[in-house]
Amino acid sequence: MKRVLLLVLAVVLAVGSAAGAESPTGQEILGDLSFRTILSGSGSAELTMITENAKGAQRSFSLKVYVQMDEEGDAQFLEYLAPADVRGTKFLSVKPKDGESQMWLYLPALGRERRIAAHMTGDSFMGTDFTYEEIGGDFDYEEDYTVQRLPDQAEQGVDCYLLELTAKGSEALYSKVRMWVWKEQMVPVKIEFYGSGDALSKTLTLSNFLPVSGELIPHHVVMANNAQGTRTILELTEVSQETVDPDIFTVRNLRR
Amino acid sequence: MKKRVQILTVILVLACAVPAWALEPSGEIYGSIGYEWDRENKEGEFASIRTGFRLALEDELEELGKLHFSTKGWLDLKQSDGSIALDQLWLKGYSGDFDYQVGRQLISWGTADGFNPTNYFARLNSSALLSGDLQGEAVWAGRAEYYAPSWSATGVLIPIFAPQKIDDLMRKMISESHPQGALLLEAIEKAKKPGLGHPEAALRVETQLAGFDVQASYFWGFEPLPGMEMVMGPTGPALEGTYRRQHFFGLAVAGTVGSAGVWAEAAYGGPEKFAEPDNPFEMRIPMSINEKYLQAVVGGDYTVDLGSGLLVQAQYIYRGQGSLLAPYVMPKETLEPGDIEAAHYLYGRLAYDFTQDSSADLMVLYGTKEKAGIIRPSYTHRLVNGLQFELSLLQPFGEEGDFQSIPTQVGLAVKYQF
Predict the structure, then answer these.
(1) SS3 (DSSP) at B341
(2) Of chain A's two ends, which shows fewer C-beta atoms within 10 Å, N or C?
């Protein structure tokens, strides 16, 4: 799969039918997922993001997200709409096809943008359970992992293919990834991320799939940090697959 | 009491005006208590019991741009003082490849963190420097930005010069660090400010080179504080301040190297030299730098893989114009100008989020010449959305230098943002 854009940004995953084979291999399933990325490679969404600490206390944020994925590369733009202490904070990530990711964070209190260091791509994004890398959609499962199909399982009441992805090298953020793919719709409904020692690090759950412009988009996404007992919940309130103006993904737009 | 009533009246009027504007207001209300400990007198006291606010109204004008109004004020019950003032009032517009903004606005340039030699307009006062509030002051200005595909240019024009504000801490440091501190403050007040017809301007060009953001800039303006001279005349010595024209060329760079964020920023230039005295019976001794100089910052940050991630930041600050805290140097007994030595500072910062609701920050500023500095640990806790409190300590250390004017301060602040 080319890139599974984890929610926020368009967590969009491929829709469509399974490959023609009756018993597809793991690689084929992964390939089918990548066949059509969500938002057709470009779109926007408004969402509510709830962060929950280990004691269950929650904090709610409102965001606007824009995504663009094409032959030239990927770009994401996020703006916090609420609450007041983060309102106006904006995040821009641009990754050319064969280049390094560049990220900027605009802080209204500072009145200008700041470059985000590459090292932060493995760190928590704005205190959530998503990493900068995950928020930036900067995942490449085909490139970073080898895939193996395990016996099918039911998940969220639907029949699923179960894939196990093992890291090819140290470039991969996780040592192992397990992915439950809804057979009928060819969309992942659950992904487990394993860290060092194959300990379960995070679990991503995707549900409430609703059609947007003919494609299924998960409107309820939960990332649980199994190690820390925290969760980040995303509720998509508005999703659009209309092409996003490329000017959105510019430092100029950060400053507006 | 009269000022208190005025401030409360303005707040009330603004609060009533908000529904009429039909915009959702944003801003903050805060209260803080500050306790100071004077090392010399071995005495401590509550130095401030302050409450304040900031109220902002902003309207999106469709594709045309944005309109912004904000005001801020504070009232110190301990000092029986207060203020209410316009914060920002601007109109922003977009037209093709051009963006423009006119009105009272915050202009923030540079790539370094807090210490920005190329941030010519948003001057920081001493209190802001020590409190970590690094936003700076808004100025009346017109700004135009042009965006080409691979570069951009920004021009700024300030029609009326606004000098550096002298806050309580700077007033204290000037008055205590010079034998003639009171006279210095008086001379600063008396210095004639350049009026209409004496604008300031700056130009900045930005691009990317090898993945680095690069900004080159030129500034044509005035000194933020007046250049000071001791005038030895027939009637005895006197202090005289003059706001001199100054020019700066700046260069700022930011990017990443490996897994670290890095930045560098420098500005070279300075004020025009003091005019030669017309009166042959008069001798003028500069107390401010009277030549061009360099100021520069080099820094970086890195997140250590420890718990939720420990942010480590370090900066080296070079100031060719001398001390960060003392803008003037007294003449020698031989009636020669005092030595203005370049000053070197090291700035370090650690930041850590214990949870999504609580975080700690530690800032250290150390002057290598003074062999002294300040350390400021703080802890912030968010109670519910928008409501947070901060506990902080400001502690000077070392034996010499201007940092000794800074008392030990403990502060507790509660802030609600809406």
Answers:
(1) coil
(2) C
